[in-house]
User: Which sequence fits this backbone?
């Protein structure tokens, strides 16, 4: 399972960077979205995948039986998803406002503050 | 249970929440913001006193013992940073009384400001690497919204760049956390430091270290990742850019200090060598960029970049003296840079522009303001006896002692070029005659209006701090020395965090 996930993570990063290199701000935001999801998937994969072993402690015991799945990465991912969701909601509003004010979605034309 | 560690985070969050409740009452929000800022300063001084007494102050959130729960830790560096945050909060709160326009206040200027401060304090105090990410995001979301208050054309362009680069940096940071967690299986920074010591895979550790370097390097505006800063910082409302200039990049620098002294200290010949060249590039590009600019706040923005280089240089040399210099530099820089931005706001108030070519005649009309400008400007350039001289002196002496000749030479050269930029601002804004056709009614109005006096208060206070550090630097130096001592002996931090609950 890990190799497939690793390839998927790599593909998502590649797609995200490709999208961010385009000229349109809409594609830029899509790229950012993919990037944050790629990072989530990376956490999920690198923390190790254990199938069919929920982290439950049997009654009367203080430690779980044998190897169980680590619940912490999923908590991290959940937090990261919520944060990314909020930030991306802001980014979407921002590009909408930016389009209304600048009348362009081309990043190459947003150079007034560079000079 | 050390309650004071949580206080600098809780106070601004609470103030922000209260401000939201009084959404329609600007006057109440202003008062709350001022009181809240003073409360942050008081809480942070309490924390500093505890840290001076105990060394490390640790609080386990919800009584979950480290490394299982989230831990808040204050060592000397954190305490210093939090005190500076409190000072800036007060300065900006006073300044905002006269500078924030009602339209900004209606869109949540004060709640966002305090949310930002909570994020900054949280980043300084957390002892958990994922929690650091969360505080970064809190800080970022607040800063995004503050930057675009007003919704002008330049702000939109600046914000697109600022938002994009910071989100990329967050994604890299998150990926690095993921890889680190996969390697050591813990998120508590002290625990990571212990477990990395026995990790087998030095190649992967270096990769993760460089990912952290890139992520924090973007936040701190280090070379070659700085270009978003001069493109965006000068676009926001002036009090906001002053706060950003003083605090936000320093959060990135703080994170670099924390991570590269506590966690990634196994292979300094690789990581700190890399930091050394990053520092050199940051100093040079920043100062050269500033030389080409003719917009008040853009010059200052480029100087943030070049000054960040000095701080990273202090970290990169990694000797006791260099770390003292780095911490001292951070203290000096936060005060001075915020002050310069606030002054640029006053000149904007008087003449309605930030363009150096259209400014002028300030010395003749406002000699007092000119003196107030000279204090931070000369301090930034490193003229004795102001705070910047000692900051630069310590760093350069550390560079000489470590025989890092090239970088030391660059540091000296950059000091000279900084002076050039400051003289340029002085000559254009204060010394030369007012260009023809510029409306100077506000400038030459004989009486100083009430709101202008309010704008002067924080500038005078921060200028007094700069003078104090310069003329009576010994206690400040001792603070920096103490924090450098702690940074070089991470075992004390580790024992305080992991031993606390047993």
Assistant:
């Amino acid at each position: 399972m890990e190799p497939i996930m690793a390839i998927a993570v790599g593909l998502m990063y590649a797609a995200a960077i490709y999208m961010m290199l385009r000229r349109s701000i809409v594609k830029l935001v899509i790229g950012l979205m993919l990037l944050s999801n790629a990072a989530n998937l990376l956490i999920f994969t690198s923390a190790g995948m254990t199938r069919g072993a929920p982290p439950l402690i049997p009654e009367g015991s203080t430690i779980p039986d044998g190897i169980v799945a680590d619940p912490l990465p999923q908590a991290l991912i959940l937090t990261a998803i919520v944060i990314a969701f909020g930030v991306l909601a802001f980014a979407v509003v921002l590009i909408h406002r930016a389009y209304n004010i600048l009348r362009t979605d081309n990043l190459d034309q947003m150079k007034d503050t560079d000079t | 249970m050390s309650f004071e560690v949580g206080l600098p985070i809780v106070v601004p969050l609470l103030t922000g929440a209260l401000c939201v409740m009084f959404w329609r009452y600007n006057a109440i929000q202003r008062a709350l913001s001022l009181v809240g800022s003073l409360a942050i300063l008081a809480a942070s001084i309490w924390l500093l006193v505890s840290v001076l007494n105990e060394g490390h102050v640790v609080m386990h959130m919800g009584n979950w013992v480290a490394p299982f729960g989230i831990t808040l830790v204050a060592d000397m560096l954190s305490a210093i940073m939090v005190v500076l945050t409190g000072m800036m909060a007060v300065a900006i709160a006073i300044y905002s009384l006269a500078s924030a326009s009602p339209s900004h206040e209606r869109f949540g200027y004060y709640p966002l400001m305090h949310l930002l401060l909570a994020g900054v304090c949280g980043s300084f105090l957390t002892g958990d690497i994922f929690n650091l990410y969360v505080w970064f995001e809190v800080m970022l979301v607040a800063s995004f919204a503050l930057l675009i208050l007003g919704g002008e054309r330049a702000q939109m362009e600046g914000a697109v760049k600022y938002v994009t680069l910071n989100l990329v940096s967050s994604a890299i940071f998150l990926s690095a956390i993921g890889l680190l967690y996969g390697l050591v299986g813990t998120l508590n920074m002290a625990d990571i430091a212990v477990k990395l010591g026995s990790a087998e895979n030095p190649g992967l550790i270096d990769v993760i270290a460089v990912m952290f370097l890139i992520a924090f390097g973007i936040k701190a505006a280090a070379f070659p990742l700085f270009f978003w800063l001069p493109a965006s910082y000068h676009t926001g409302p002036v009090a906001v850019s002053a706060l950003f200039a003083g605090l936000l990049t320093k959060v990135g620098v703080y994170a670099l200090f924390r991570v590269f002294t506590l966690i990634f200290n196994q292979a300094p010949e690789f990581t700190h060598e890399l930091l050394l060249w990053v520092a050199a590039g940051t100093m040079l590009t920043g100062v050269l960029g500033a030389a080409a600019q003719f917009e008040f706040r853009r010059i200052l923005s480029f100087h943030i970049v070049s000054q960040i280089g000095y701080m990273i240089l202090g970290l990169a040399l990694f000797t006791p003296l260099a770390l003292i210099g780095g911490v001292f530099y951070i203290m000096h820089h936060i005060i001075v840079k915020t002050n310069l931005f606030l002054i640029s706001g006053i000149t904007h108030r008087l003449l309605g522009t930030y363009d150096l070519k259209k400014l002028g005649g300030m010395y003749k009309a406002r000699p007092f303001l000119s003196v107030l400008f000279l204090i931070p400007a000369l301090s930034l350039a490193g003229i004795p006896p102001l705070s910047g001289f000692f900051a630069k002196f310590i760093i350069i002496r550390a560079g000489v002692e470590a025989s890092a000749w090239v970088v030391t030479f660059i540091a000296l050269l950059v000091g000279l070029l900084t002076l050039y930029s400051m003289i340029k601002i002085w000559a254009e804004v204060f010394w030369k005659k007012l260009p023809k056709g510029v409306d100077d009614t506000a400038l030459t109005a004989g009486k100083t209006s009430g709101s202008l006096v309010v704008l002067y208060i924080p500038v005078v206070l921060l200028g007094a701090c700069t003078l104090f550090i310069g003329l009576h630097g010994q206690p400040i130096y001792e603070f920096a020395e103490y924090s450098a001592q702690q940074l070089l002996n991470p075992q004390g931090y580790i024992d305080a965090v992991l031993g606390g609950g047993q």
